[in-house]
Amino acid sequence: MAEKSFSTHVNQIYLPGDSVTLSKTDEISTVKIVLGPGLRKYGKQILVTKSGVLRTKASPATYWIDCHHKRYVPARGDDVIGVVTNKVGESYKVNIGSSEEASLSSIAFPGATKKNKPNIQIGDLVFAKLLIASIDMEPELVCVNSLGENVGLGVLSTSGFLFTVPLHHIRKLLNPECTLLKSLGKALSFEIAVGMNGKIWIKAKSVKQTIALARAISISEHMNKEEMNKLCRKFVDRQAGF
Amino acid sequence: MKETPLSICEKQTVIQGVKEGQRVDGRSLSEQRKTCITFGTEWGCCQVLLGNTRVMAQVSCSVQVPKSSRANEGMLFINVEMSTMAAEHFEAGRLGQQGIEVNRLVERCIKDSRCIDLESLCILVEEQAWEVRVDIHILNHEGNLIDAATLAALGALCHFKRPDVTLDGRDVIIHQLDERDPVPLTILHHPLTLSFALFNQGICVLDPTNLEERSADGKLVMGLNAYRELCTLQISGDGVFIHKEAVISCANVAASRAVQMVEMLKKSLADDAAERYSA
């Protein structure tokens, strides 16, 4: 079992069963530390439950293990894209790629009331936030914030395109340091919704442009910053040549 | 677990794109994905990668009593296994509709086209014959399982060698692999399948991905060999319309692809043999 301290071992590889110990400074400090996916408190130890790389984020100090994943495990507060599969009474069943389908109440939309409900067909896509994500319970989605306001969530247009990428790629795209989407946006105007469950919905002016963008995003999975910039330049050149 | 349902927007984009001659993965309509054929260390082990679809086939043999109706022939048995890691909706131990379709089409393409000389597998008439068994494992499902499965099965059969047999009067002696060089199977021709996804506007798309298969209205599977002979033909899908000219043009595309694929298979076999010889 490897004994490594948190802050000094960020970006190192861990295997399940490894334990991570707090450094002396961490132990004394009263700063709250959040354990993300792949880390678990077990007695006094902090154990690693997934194989991957230790990552961190400041305020609140959060640590998690980053690894290649295709299956989504629901987490409270995540924005996800799901496919509506059924309507049961007052709520919809939504497939978000997790082991169980999530439920979405028909009044959890901005401005919706019992009489004024959104028009959703089976097969439509919804961009929603996970309100409940517990191991033993059905996940629950909402498309409003706690005040019932519009926060950019809701039904997505059927004229876009949906594709799936591995979960670590989603995290990379949503990282504020990642410039891929911004640079692509300079070449073409498009609408995009990125779900933490690995689903990306994208809509450009034409099907051709939509497909080109979807492919550019998919192939950037294993690219670093320089390669992404190169890809963007190539993409811009090709778009200009249309 | 249930398969992720197809959303309206995915289907619409695929159909609209195909109408404009654009495919979601950037290929042209009659372009296949990158195909890669590799062989394992054992005889008769072949793995095929068709884009991200991955299929492995392993051939084995045993001595059995031949069927009374075909007393002077060996037997060929084809079995398909769908691993649960290949796709979320596959169940362990159960083939389901898709699995049965793959199994049946591989059987039709390889067994019914009589590409293996079964008479050469007979040891003693009515008493002993080889039963050759092909186990096909679907390892990753990313569309067009049928083509990948037939190619893997054919590759494995071409690569396979059975132990040599001699007769001492009526006693059968089976020689171990280290005792005598094993014998390859007699393969008369190389049949392959090529699948097209059919869309109701009369468009045929070669080597469909999972998304294209699910958005399409029907499917056309053609079994062909390197002599441009048709071995299998199947059109499935409810209410799909296809002109006979379209079938002919698909057959022409498929025939030229089949020739290239067989060449590629022979080249990989030769490369594997050369590597084994040098090692």
Automatic annotation (TrEMBL), chain A:
One term under GO cellular component: nucleolus
- GO biological process, any: CUT catabolic process
- Keyword set, alphabetical order: Cytoplasm, Exosome, Nucleus, RNA-binding, rRNA processing
| Compartment list | Cytoplasm; Nucleus, Nucleolus
InterPro entries, sorted? Exosome_RNA_bind1/RRP40/RRP4, KH_dom_type_1, KH_dom_type_1_sf, NA-bd_OB-fold, RRP40_KH-I, Rrp40_N_euk, Rrp40_S1
Name used for this protein in its record: Exosome complex component RRP40
Which family does the record claim for this protein?
A: Belongs to the RRP40 family.
Q: Tell me which Gene3D superfamilies the record gives.
A: 2.40.50.100, K Homology domain, type 1, Nucleic acid-binding proteins
For this protein, the record's Pfam families field holds: KH_6, Rrp40_N, RRP40_S1
The segment(s) forming the K Homology domain are: 160-208
* One function term, GO molecular function aspect: RNA binding
Give all residue intervals belonging to the Exosome complex exonuclease Rrp40 N-terminal domain: 33-71
TrEMBL record, chain B:
Alphabetically list the UniProt keywords: Cytoplasm, Exosome, Nucleus, RNA-binding, rRNA processing
Coiled-coil stretches, from where to where? none
- What organism is this sequence from? Daphnia pulex
Q: What is its main location?
A: cytoplasm
Q: Does the keyword RNA-binding apply?
A: yes
UniProt-recorded Gene Ontology molecular function terms: mRNA 3'-UTR AU-rich region binding
Xref: InterPro entries: ExoRNase_PH_dom1 (IPR001247), ExoRNase_PH_dom2 (IPR015847), ExoRNase_PH_dom2_sf (IPR036345), Exosome_comp_Rrp42_subfam (IPR050590), PNPase/RNase_PH_dom_sf (IPR027408), Ribosomal_Su5_D2-typ_SF (IPR020568), Rrp45 (IPR033100)
Q: Where in the cell is it found?
A: Cytoplasm; Nucleus, Nucleolus
Q: Which family does it belong to?
A: Belongs to the RNase PH family.
User: Does Transcription regulation appear among the keywords?
Assistant: no
All copies of domain Exoribonuclease phosphorolytic, residue ranges: 32-163, 191-256
One example of a Gene Ontology biological process annotation: U5 snRNA 3'-end processing
Q: Report the GO terms under cellular component.
A: cytoplasmic exosome (RNase complex); nuclear exosome (RNase complex); nucleolus
Designated name of the protein: Exosome complex component RRP45
